[in-house]
Design goal:
Number of helices: 11
Order of helices and strands: HHHHHHHHHHH
Low-confidence stretches: none
Radius of gyration: 16 Å
Distance between the termini: 20 Å
Oligomer: single chain
Length: 194
Amino acid sequence: MNFLAHIYLSGDDEGVIIGNFIADGIKGKKYEVYPPSIKKGILLHRAIDSYTDKHPIVKQSTARLHKNYGHYSGVIVDILYDHFLAKNWKKYHTTPLSNYVENFYEMLLKNYDILPLRIQRMMPIMISQNWLLSYESTEGIATILSQMNLRTKGKSKMNLAILELETYYEEFEEEFETFFSELIAYSKNKLSLL
């Protein structure tokens, strides 16, 4: 899953949300230096990624992309799934997406000192370009995929995946909705055990 899903699946605990958001930049046991709630978020993030990577519905989505994008297919599906979460946000949360995202950005700024350097550098761009809210539209997703392609120096061709999104839009959306309901239940249970 990508940023928005990870944040959403963290629940309401600020530390868990921050931990889940920064987890990709925390390798091995380096999470142990963080306060308990942030540790919990990092471990939740890892559990979500592991569950997602093994899930048959996600594999179905990535298989549709594998021929053209190889090992980047999983990253693309993470981004596409965030699109469907943002687009259908009202099904999942009572707070409007724009408010939810604004509250998250404020939370990041408030916790700036605890963020890893990589996140501190990325954060101003993320906020100024409003990445999380941009997931709501296919135009926003096209921009994100183009930026990701630039990060791979054009090797991934991820910018072209917008074509598959348009061609298989209903299939991806249906797969997301089925998978995400299972992931919500899994995450709630996992969080209660951490």
